[in-house]
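A quick aside before the break. I want you to see a complete sequence-to-structure record at least once, exactly as it would be stored in a machine-readable document. Don't worry about memorizing anything.
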Amino acid sequence: MNQDPQPNPSPNPNRKPPELKPGTVKKLVIGIAAAIVLIYLGSTSFYTVQEQERAAVMTFGKYSHETTSGLHFKWPSPIQQVIVVPAELTQHITIGYRQNGNDITPVEEEAIMITGDENIVSADAVVTWKISNIQSYLYNISNPEQFLRNATGASIRSVIGSQKLDYAITDGKTEIQDQVRERLIELQARYDTGIQIIDLKFQDIEPPGGEVEDAFRAVTNAREEKNTKINNAAKYENDRIPKARGEAQALLEHAEAEKKSRILNAEGDVAKFNAIYAEYAKNPGVTESRLILETLEKILPGAKIFITNSGSDTVNYLPLNELLKNNASSASSNADTSPAPQGGNEQQ
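That is the input. The structure line, written in tokens, reads:
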């Protein structure tokens, strides 16, 4: 048998909420306060330092010590406070322009400056730096990045202001860059900024755009062409001079050899003459005859000599040339008609 459910009693508007005892309220307030304190202590007593960061811990507003990467404990604020800085991170600032991704925006007030010969030049640079001393970085300068930017601009203007434009945009770029870096490092040390300058590189040192830039570009091209021709001439000189020196040395050695050869020949002739003269002094007649005969052999090597008696008063005339020709003809004909030799001995 089903029974009808009892209807819900209607609320009584005159009913009062239960009253809490004074001790319970006090305990509840103390518990809430304790929870708040614990949450506050937990949120302000522990802090984390990332890998490329370091933290400066200040006790009652005064620098106390620094911590490296990891989870650390400190007294809750306001007893101790922590300032985390990217001390292990290498940072960069640009002078003369700003770069956002691939977008580059020139900053003319930083780039434009005057050279020592009162010309205008535009210089863009990149400074690489990092924090070397956290205490100096936090307490000695109010805006470290702006201070570094101003110090870099002052160093660049100081160096370029003492150089000529032609030197600054051509051969002097590297030297000017080194001088600016040294002055910037000196400024950081003088003001104890806690900033370490790692490097400074110029992107461009050039005249402002327009006709001036075109004129200086033409001057630069002409100077480069001049240097190229000088280098080519020096290369040709280095190639030709050793060859010429070698040829000259060869000529000198050949002349020296010829000189020694002639001296030796002359000394040989002198020795030969002295030997002949010694023999001549012993027997002049025999030596004279021998010399005459040797001379005749040299000047008449193929001559035929006929000896005749020239003691008579008559002139001897002999057709010597015709006799020689007839004798030569007879000898050749006899040689042609002579029989072949026979075997055996011929008896007379």
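Two observations worth writing down. The longest strand covers residues 120-131. The chain has a mean pLDDT of 81. We'll return to this after the break.
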